[in-house]
Input
Amino acid sequence: MNYSRQRELILETLKEYAIHPNAEELYIKVHEKDKNISKGTLYRNLNRLAKEGIIKKIDGLDSSSHFDHNIHEHYHLICTKCNRIFDIEKETTQIPQLNIENDFKVLSYDIIFKGICKECSNK
Amino acid sequence: MNYSRQRELILETLKEYAIHPNAEELYIKVHEKDKNISKGTLYRNLNRLAKEGIIKKIDGLDSSSHFDHNIHEHYHLICTKCNRIFDIEKETTQIPQLNIENDFKVLSYDIIFKGICKECSNK
DNA sequence: ACCAAAAGTAGTAATAATTCCTATTTTTAT
DNA sequence: ATAAAAATAGGAATTATTACTACTTTTGGT
Output
């Protein structure tokens, strides 16, 4: 993977997010910094970075993919009321143990919990 | 949820699949049985059925959602080479234990493993 | 069985999300 | 300095999904 200024900018901008933006949301911020950056470049790099394990791709919230710069191992909670993604620490979850290593080489995994967050429950 | 012939047909057709089709793939089969069924109806019902826990929505393979009629608890393996979804039984995985029940009411969860399947490894 | 309200649908339009394409630019290794 | 490889910009094209509206079906009460 050769260096590219654009990829650096994309990664750097993603890191400024506390939430987990999708490509469109991220594009707005990236575009503020570099008017010439293209959507193709954004998508290409987000997918590349995710494949390399430098960022995480989160699916399941809506029809778009969301991205997480946090590579420290953790899982995700999706509130189906307010449509927000919350992080959940590994420590509160038992690590899945697979007996399938011979059949499938696991490179990454995510656990996505769906439900209602505290805030929405109290409404 | 009122009865609808179309929803029955969609569910019945999904159950004929061993693999995990996306809406488009399913539409082809459903459309063979009922020429008048619309995409809107398909999407509406797939999402409804998934929300009710009657079927499972699987995200993460590509930009489309895939669906699984198998409600028996299990997780998923996605091969990033051949782009196929494999089922993995609960028995081979420790059930995630959450300490967050007070903060988040979990309604469902899925574990998505990504990696290379045996077949693709042997190539 | 009849009927009104509620729920659901068909068909199509619109939007959103993502990928593809090509000429140009940048990076990298020599 | 330079050529090959990798990456980008910009826009077109495609794919996936949702929205809209008039019409049809379901349901529960009579």
Remarks:
- The domain at 74-121 of chain B is CATH 3.30.1490.190 (Dna Ligase; domain 1).
- The interface with chain A takes residues 51, 57, 59-60, 63, 65, 75, 77, 79-80, 86, 88, 92-100, 102-118, 121 of chain B (CB under 8 Å).
- Chain B has two domains: 5-68, 74-121.
- The CA atoms of residues 11 and 82 of chain B lie 26 Å apart.
